[in-house]
């Protein structure tokens, strides 16, 4: 056998495949323009939405929480994953595996290793962010609160298990990107057994889809409650629509993984059959980040949109609201005043409680207080008239 260098093509060493797929038309999702366009666009949108969310939590309401920490971690790892995916295009993603050189394959597999670890982290963190957000929304003791706690426990275990499998795919980790490794002890994401490799991806992807469905179902117990405003019901439907997109992308990825046996069917060609599945999970976590971010910052930007696209009255109302917000935010009164008037304000609570449940409860109590005050004033007026 001739000496093997980084410029040696795999086909010259491993031979021609039993099933010739070299003449297959190039899939739309294998084209560099497609991969770059979708990845960059969705990553940019995710960054914009998450930054808006963090601005509101840290600068407007000044009430950050664990859900914000997890969304920051998500943003870090999804960025690493997206960059790795884009760099992998240069080293063979979208092209036939056997037509690559050994140098290209090594670089591709290193990037796949980084991509896989980052995606496992990102998928876990974005789900935890949503569930911790629910803990701020629902009251302790309710079904939704308990369901969120159970989800946090199970999803954390799922994330830890599969992330460890992605970090340690071989007894000697570099064997994961050495296609010439002899007697390599690898498993799960680096297994050379097609059934084991496929089972790892399918199990992870299937559980991922089920968890997405579980998370979407939790807040929709609110929809059947009486007394919900039209605004809240429409907000729930919008969240359901965005959640349905996440589940659709996740389910599509399960189908792709099963059909192509994670790049092993009809022949082993992971760089040819794999890009679509990887693109789908990148898009999925990005859309999920939009779902968890929109309810947080929408109450802040909606008055501006109203002022621009509807009438000037919205602008006037907002300025009045902003003025009272600044007075509380500036801490001009006592701490008790701030707690009673600023952090319990309906606008502020809308940011912490995006579906409006606690806000509605608070507004009802305020209406009751106003009614009682009006009755007292009326009684005082009658007493004065009698005198």
From TrEMBL:
<comment type="similarity">
    <text>Belongs to the SAT4 family.</text>
</comment>
<dbReference type="Pfam" id="PF20684">
    <property type="entry name" value="Fung_rhodopsin"/>
</dbReference>
<keyword id="KW-0472">Membrane</keyword>
<dbReference type="GO" id="GO:0016020">
    <property type="term" value="C:membrane"/>
</dbReference>
<dbReference type="InterPro" id="IPR052337">
    <property type="entry name" value="SAT4-like"/>
</dbReference>
<dbReference type="InterPro" id="IPR049326">
    <property type="entry name" value="Rhodopsin_dom_fungi"/>
</dbReference>
<feature type="domain" description="Rhodopsin">
    <location>
        <begin position="52"/>
        <end position="302"/>
    </location>
</feature>
<feature type="transmembrane region" description="Helical">
    <location>
        <begin position="35"/>
        <end position="56"/>
    </location>
</feature>
<keyword id="KW-0812">Transmembrane</keyword>
<keyword id="KW-1133">Transmembrane helix</keyword>
<feature type="transmembrane region" description="Helical">
    <location>
        <begin position="275"/>
        <end position="298"/>
    </location>
</feature>
<protein>
    <recommendedName>
        <fullName>Rhodopsin domain-containing protein</fullName>
    </recommendedName>
</protein>
<feature type="transmembrane region" description="Helical">
    <location>
        <begin position="68"/>
        <end position="88"/>
    </location>
</feature>
<feature type="transmembrane region" description="Helical">
    <location>
        <begin position="234"/>
        <end position="255"/>
    </location>
</feature>
<feature type="transmembrane region" description="Helical">
    <location>
        <begin position="147"/>
        <end position="168"/>
    </location>
</feature>
<feature type="transmembrane region" description="Helical">
    <location>
        <begin position="108"/>
        <end position="126"/>
    </location>
</feature>
């Amino acid at each position: 056998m001739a000496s093997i260098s980084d410029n040696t093509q795999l086909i010259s060493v491993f031979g021609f495949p039993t099933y010739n797929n070299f003449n297959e038309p190039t899939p739309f999702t294998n084209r560099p323009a497609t991969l770059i366009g979708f990845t960059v666009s969705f990553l940019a949108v995710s960054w914009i939405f998450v930054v808006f969310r963090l601005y509101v939590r840290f600068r407007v309401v000044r009430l950050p929480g664990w859900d914000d920490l997890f969304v920051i971690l998500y943003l870090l790892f999804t960025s690493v994953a997206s960059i790795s995916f884009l760099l992998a295009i240069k080293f063979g993603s979208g092209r036939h595996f056997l037509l690559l050189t050994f140098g290209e394959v090594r670089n591709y597999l290193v990037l796949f290793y980084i991509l896989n670890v980052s995606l496992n982290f990102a998928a876990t963190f974005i789900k935890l962010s949503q569930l911790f957000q629910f803990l701020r929304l629902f009251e302790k003791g309710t079904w939704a609160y308990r369901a969120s706690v159970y989800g946090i426990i199970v999803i954390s275990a799922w994330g830890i298990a599969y992330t460890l499998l992605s970090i340690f795919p071989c007894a000697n980790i570099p064997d994961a990107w050495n296609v010439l490794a002899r007697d390599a002890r690898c498993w799960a994401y680096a297994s050379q057994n097609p059934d084991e490799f496929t089972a790892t991806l399918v199990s992870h992807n299937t559980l991922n889809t089920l968890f997405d469905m579980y998370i979407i179902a939790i807040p929709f117990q609110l929809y059947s409650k009486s007394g919900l405003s039209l605004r809240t019901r429409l907000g729930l439907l919008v969240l359901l629509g965005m959640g349905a997109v996440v589940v659709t992308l996740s389910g599509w990825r399960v189908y792709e993984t099963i059909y192509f046996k994670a790049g092993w069917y009809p022949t082993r060609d992971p760089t040819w059959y794999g890009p679509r599945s990887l693109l789908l999970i990148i898009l999925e976590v990005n859309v999920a980040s939009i779902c968890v971010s929109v309810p947080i910052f929408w109450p802040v930007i909606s008055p501006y949109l109203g002022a621009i696209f509807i009438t000037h009255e919205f602008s006037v109302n907002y300025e009045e609201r902003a003025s009272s917000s600044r007075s509380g935010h500036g801490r001009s009164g006592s701490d008790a005043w701030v707690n009673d008037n600023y952090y319990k304000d309906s606008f502020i609570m809308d940011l912490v409680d995006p579906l409006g449940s606690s806000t509605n409860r608070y507004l009802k109590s305020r209406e009751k207080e106003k009614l009682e005050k009006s009755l007292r004033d009326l009684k005082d007026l009658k007493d004065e008239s009698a005198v």
